Amino acid sequence: MFSRRVFSAVAGQALRPQSNPILSSRFAPLQKSFLSTETRSAIDKAVGSAPVVLFMKGTPETPQCGFSRASIQILGLQGVNPQKFTAFNVLEDEELRSGIKEYSDWPTVPQLYVEKEFVGGTDIMMSMHQDGSLAKLLEEKGVLVPAEE
């Protein structure tokens, strides 16, 4: 995240940037306090509900944005086992939609979690898909459809 600056003028001096004390690290706990305990608990439960969890706009069958569609396609190309996958439609619940962004400290949806760990959004998934690291992660976690022998 970029640092915001506040400009102040002192008589006879040019404007100069000053750090905004509200954005300092000692206020970080206050900045994170908007997520209610109930919403945090519900998201914790959702993240732990399957080995692979995707928070998206729409459903896997009917994604409601191109990024959600791309995320589902990537997971399909990777061979994620449908029995080890679940998705949550953030469009159905405004608290979830805003809460998941604060929970992960990631500004966009979709968001992918593997074994309760935040992986990233579509851009990260795409990059990992292209460089092979997503395949490696999913294989290590044992969430792929078993290969036929």
From TrEMBL:
Residues annotated as domain Glutaredoxin: 52-119
InterPro entries: Glutaredoxin (IPR002109), GRX_PICOT-like (IPR033658), Monothiol_GRX-rel (IPR004480), Thioredoxin-like_sf (IPR036249)
SUPFAM superfamilies cross-referenced by the UniProt entry: Thioredoxin-like
Membrane-crossing segments per the record: none
Keyword Transcription: no
The keyword Metal-binding is assigned to this record: yes
Signal peptide: none
Keyword entries, A-Z: 2Fe-2S, Iron, Iron-sulfur, Metal-binding, Redox-active center
A matching Pfam family: Glutaredoxin
GO biological process: [2Fe-2S] cluster assembly
GO molecular function per UniProt: 2 iron, 2 sulfur cluster binding; disulfide oxidoreductase activity; metal ion binding
A Gene Ontology cellular-component term: mitochondrial matrix
CDD domains linked: GRX_PICOT_like
PROSITE patterns attached to this UniProt entry: GLUTAREDOXIN_2
NCBIfam families linked to this entry: Grx4 family monothiol glutaredoxin (TIGR00365)
Name of the protein: Monothiol glutaredoxin-5, mitochondrial
